[in-house]
Amino acid sequence: MVHPQTDTTEKTKELLQQYTLRKTSCRLEVLGLLLNNKSALAHSDIEKQLGDKYDRVTLYRTLHSFEEKGLVHSINDVSGAVKYALCQEACNQHHHHDNHMHFNCTACGQTFCLNDVTIPALSLPSGYKVNSLHFSAQGICSTCEEV
Fold it and tell me: What's the predicted TM-score (pTM) here?
């Protein structure tokens, strides 16, 4: 049997290689956290989970390089905090295909990517060009609903 931590470690190494990012310990650990969480993580969430292993600037640079390469996308939640979640495989450093719904739970404060929710086609008047779309819903997540 393969240990789940080994699976995550291998997956993080593969992803960093796929996105042509150097395999630093910070990148491996931050990517591992993103892989192991169902919800998007704020910089402060990552900082808490990693303790004082890396300074704030290193974490910001790591997240910024992930976003630049199309590995993660940022989400502004209802509180104004920026959170980060893994992109689907369609994203790259030249274009994020972040056209899925985000769900902000008003009970626990977590933000989830709802990749399976279909967003209707957007029809804009002539002369308008969309650079990015942000779809967000607020309510109670399935975990909080069960409580």
Answer: 0.80
